[in-house]
Amino acid sequence: MKQVYIFFTFVFLLHIINILSPSDRLQYVLGLLALLMLVLSFRYASNLFKVLGFGFSVVGFIFFFTADLRIAEVIPMLANNLSLLTLLAVLPWMNSVVTAGRFDILMQNLLRGNVKDLGSLYQRSTTAMMSLTAFLNVSSATIAQQVLVDNLKPVQRKVANRFIMMTTLRGYSLALLWSPLEVLLAMSIFITGVNYGELLPWMVVITIFMYLVDSIWGKYYFGKVEYPAEHKVELKSENNRNRSKIIQLITALISFLAIVILLGNLLDMEFIFIVTISVFPFAALWAFLIKRWKSFWVIGWNRWRSSVNNMHNFIVLFVTLAFFTGNLNESPALLMLQDPILFVADYPVLLLIMIQLLFMVMSMFGVHPVATMGILGGISSMLVDILSPLSLAIILVTAGVSTVPIGTYGLVVTIISMNLKQSPYLITYYNLIYSIVFGTVGILVAYWMI
Questions:
Q1: What CA–CA distance (Å, rounded) separates 33 from 9?
Q2: pLDDT tens readout for residues 123-154
Q3: N or C: which end of the chain has fewer CB within 10 A?
């Protein structure tokens, strides 16, 4: 399966062609190719995603037999989520330019700063995580966790572990709300059809509020723990280099956001597609401007090939999810779901709370928030009758992201759990109140926008 990336890339390129020049025949072919991708990937997917994929397939078949559908009508549905898979396929190029530019080292330097106590380090760690996660995604949590484990060796182990469990996951979650490279954000826009430029200000407001609240709490909670003296060395030249790197990173981030918003206003195309076609040219230009062209290509090629070769989990999830939602929308079962929604139609705040609770409960049982969002996407037409598209987009993003620090079997939680040799349920426990506050803020803002 080392060369499977060639086939997957071929399918993604066909999908891009189909977006630029829509064709029913090509959509049918893409459906067949998506089915083949599912067959190839199922064997190599993790057990969790196999269970999810199998569950969506079984329920999808039940909906199929209750709907007036032919198999020929179902095949094209399987390609409905290829946009999300294509976006995931290009993301390693952005990650690679950050690595080639040595911005990952910037995070290490920031986490070894001249601070007096763990309260100040908490604020610095959260800021560094939030800034670099926008480009590095999961890699940022791995880097931060490794640096902090080394730096906090003189600190009591229980305190150090608690610090790492909190700051890495919370800082990581704060970047997911507004980063155009985040799948949860892209998927919520895909479901609701809202404009990214319209959604972004509210995501920034929520991010700033949660950052301030968590930073104040972290300063108070860890402020009494002294930071090890041997790590309080910062050279002036190193400070200057860090400052220069931070300016470059901020400039790149603002530029990419501006490009996505501008293209979104100029082109009548989906947000996911705009981000997808922007990632590689932007990353290549960035690498050229910072004179890291060769290393960008070497790192980028290896990471991209490895990433596409190992997309099996998401292929199983998104293809079966497309089958599930496609059949649900044509099934009489959709009418059965109207009753509980109509029951709370006069109390939209209850519907917002139900959505938030659904994400939280499902995440604790190992269901990826993308899968939960996909389920809700199947009934989005009913939800927007009560909530505005913007309100629905806000609650989908905040509810999904708020579960990241408490997703017992989530990727980042699992990585930290394994490296610290701590129970994932303990990580969930330490971050539960944060996630509840996070979700509550999302509910209030979404209710305000109805």
A1: 11
A2: 888 888 888 787 777 777 777 887 888 888 88
A3: N
Q: Which of 283, 323, 317 lies closest to 303 in space, CA to CA?
A: 283
Alpha helices (runs of H) in 21-117, residue ranges in sequence order: 24-42, 47-66, 71-74, 82-100, 103-110
Structure tokens, 309: 């070769």
CA distance 38 to 316: 6
DSSP letters for 426-439: HHHHHHHHHHHHHH
Closest C-alpha among 438, 432, 443, 376 to residue 407:
432
Q: 444 is written with which tokens?
A: 């209030």
Please state, in angstroms and rounded to a whole number, the distance separating the CA atoms of residues 301 and 399. Answer: 34
Per-residue model confidence as pLDDT tens digits over 208-257? 999 999 999 999 999 888 876 554 545 455 566 677 888 888 888 889 98
On whether the CB atoms of residues 167 and 218 are closer than 8 A, the answer is yes
Closest CA to 439 of 137, 220, 177: 177
Tokens of 284: 């290549």
Q: How far apart are CA 145 and CA 169, in angstroms?
A: 10
Residue spans of beta strands (DSSP E) within 261-342 = none
Asked if residue 97 lies in contact with residue 300, where contact means CB atoms within 8 angstroms, the answer is: yes
pLDDT digits (tens, 9 = 90+) for 278-300: 999 999 999 999 899 999 999 99
